[in-house]
Amino acid sequence: MAPSDRAGQIAAHLNYPKGMLNGQVAIVTGSGQGIGAETARLFANEGAWVVVSDIDAEKGQKVADSINASGGKAISIPGDMLSDAYLNELVKKTAEFGNGKIHIIVNNAGYTWDGVIHKTTDKQWDNIIALHNTQPFKLIRAAAPYFRVKDGEPRNIVNISSTSGLHGNAGQANYALAKAGVTGLTKTIAKEWGPSFGVRANTVAFGHIATRLTAAKEEGAFVTTPDGQKIALGIPQAQRGARNQDGAFKDIPLGRPGTATEAASAVLAVVSPLFSYVSGQTLSVTGGRNM
């Protein structure tokens, strides 16, 4: 598409009477709750056809049902991201749902399995690297036939990272490495699939967003691995960050954690036509933290 044609297409999109993502087919992994669920809802509000991907079938179905009840269009395709068979099924069923097209992938699924370096097990290491690096790569690879196309329609891949990947974090060597690796994958996609196919790829790195991963570990949230092991989530109360007497987070210029909706809004912005000339970048969503 010539630059002038694309400029005209963008100008038309900016009117978005039916939503900025009208008719686009989007996979959002880990969208049964939290940031993923909010991303799915915001996408649907902007006209996208959304595939809710989550290991928890009940939670995923509730998100899809709420979208459909609000006038949007969504289906739930539950499964384990660590299963190669599931990734292939996810791509196949999404393409069927989308009448042969997939426009957006948001690699959001994940969790933390913390441990100081000298106590981190091989299982902890391998699990987190697979979940945040290997499996997102395999999903993108499986979906390549739907992105390496020249139909003039927008294509976007968003890989979710973290400030742990940008700056490191004590107790998270596995997670920090995985989230740092996400940026390299993103840039490679942008360089390989941008020139001929117009695919945009960007990373969104979250700071302290109020989710089960940043809640007090004492609240008891956990995930269960496929072999039945329970992994405690959250941050021990003593390590949750410096606060002043008013309860504000002193290391965050905006003075508070972000909400799941604010985090999801950043993802929506990145895939929207408002960011049509942005690719290969990492957007930090931190409230100003780590400037």
TrEMBL record:
UniProt catalytic activity: a (3R)-hydroxyacyl-[ACP] + NADP(+) = a 3-oxoacyl-[ACP] + NADPH + H(+)
Keywords per UniProt: NADP
Record-linked Gene3D superfamilies: NAD(P)-binding Rossmann-like Domain
One Pfam family it belongs to: adh_short
Keyword Transport: no
InterPro entries the UniProt entry points to: NAD(P)-bd_dom_sf (IPR036291), SDR (IPR050259), SDR_fam (IPR002347)
Enzyme class: oxidoreductase
Superkingdom assignment: Eukaryota
An example molecular function term from Gene Ontology annotations: 3-oxoacyl-[acyl-carrier-protein] reductase (NADPH) activity
EC id: 1.1.1.100
Family: Belongs to the short-chain dehydrogenases/reductases (SDR) family.
Name by which UniProt lists this protein: 3-oxoacyl-[acyl-carrier-protein] reductase
